[in-house]
Amino acid sequence: MSAPPKPSPRYTALLQLLRTADTIWNSSRVFFGRWELSPAQFNLLNLLTDPGDGLTQSELSRELLTHRSNITGLVDRLEARGLVARREETGDRRAWRVVLTAAGHRLMDEVLPHYFRAAERVWEGIPARRAAEVGEALRQVAINTERAAGQLAVEDRP
Amino acid sequence: MSAPPKPSPRYTALLQLLRTADTIWNSSRVFFGRWELSPAQFNLLNLLTDPGDGLTQSELSRELLTHRSNITGLVDRLEARGLVARREETGDRRAWRVVLTAAGHRLMDEVLPHYFRAAERVWEGIPARRAAEVGEALRQVAINTERAAGQLAVEDRP
DNA sequence: TCCATATTGTTGATATGTCAACAATACTCA
DNA sequence: TGAGTATTGTTGACATATCAACAATATGGA
Questions:
Q1: Which of A23, A53, B87, B123 has its CA 20 to 30 A from that of B18?
Q2: In b/e form, how buried is each residue of B67-89, taking b as 16+ CB within 10 angstroms?
Q3: Partner residue opposite B20 with nearest CB, options A17, A114, A126
């Protein structure tokens, strides 16, 4: 009878990372439900509130870490609700430029203050300084992960 | 002309958290693709490798932070591939007990060592001690998030 | 110029996820 | 015991996600 092997601190931390992100995502679904938005829809709209005149669908897919083809339906539904519009991209007839409509701007003006307050609350009990350190470590983890993904072909080669 | 407002450290850290989790998830899809598994399928199988005689579908849904109804299809597909089996739950005729088959055990014996190594590599450049601290902070964030979700009805009340 | 190559958005197939509603079964306690 | 309530798994409708394939269009050299 041997004791079960104790998982490594890094493995445990990775599981906690994914678990926490899942918890936040699930909770945000309820949160954004107040405005009949899904988290994915909110994230897309949030990008469009940045100064500038919108983004193409490919740009959106890169920012949202999602596949091009996923943006089509997302924009379709937001457009049907009148929150975004597709404008012709001058100089590239393949592309659309997706922008917030006036209604989209009004909705985001309403949602964003609540969102920022909620973002602060999830770090309650953790000093801003420490949250920043955690963020920095997570940035490194993301970089490591991308590097590993690029090397997958030679994964496990010593 | 005022400068754009600088986002708070906690807001930035929250975005980084979600972004990193997304990056890991996307990378893991490629990783598990070597064994024709999706991340969701791997996570389910991984739970079943724990000692004990399997889990019911409701237990699986709680561990995986996902809806009951999602487990049905997940188990259906894994069962069709012969990696898991549904056994009758003694004492509760509503429930199934999902267990790994011999083939499921063989597959996980093959995958897990690669998975553990990859989990370590993701934290490269970050001392184990520091990874554990990050994990601890993330655990607190998850707790705060759950608390906030429970209070959503009174959200934004001072 | 013209050809090879890349990029953009869409489609259809499919997996993963939610939710509401349902039937079957289990549980509680007056 | 029995009535009301809760839990379990499934289904169907739908949103979100991937991927491969496609047509249209851009782009970069020979």
A1: A53
A2: eeeebeebbeebbeeebbbbeee
A3: A17
B3-49: pLDDT as tens digits:
556 789 999 999 999 999 999 999 999 999 999 999 999 999 999 99
B52 is written with which tokens? 């004990």
Is domain B9-150 annotated with CATH 3.30.450.20?
A: no
The answer to whether the beta carbon of residue B90 comes closer than 7 angstroms to any atom of strand C is no
Q: What share of chain A in percent tops pLDDT 90?
A: 85
- A42, A123, A124, B107, B156 from B147: Cα distances, Å: 22, 12, 11, 38, 14
Q: Are A130 and B137 an interchain contact pair (Cβ–Cβ within 8 Å)?
A: yes
DSSP label of A152: G
> What confidence tens digit (pLDDT) does each residue in B99-145 have?
999 999 999 999 999 999 999 999 999 999 999 999 999 999 999 99
pLDDT, one tens digit per residue, over A50-84 is 988 899 999 999 999 999 999 999 999 999 999 99
- For chain B, the domains span 9-150
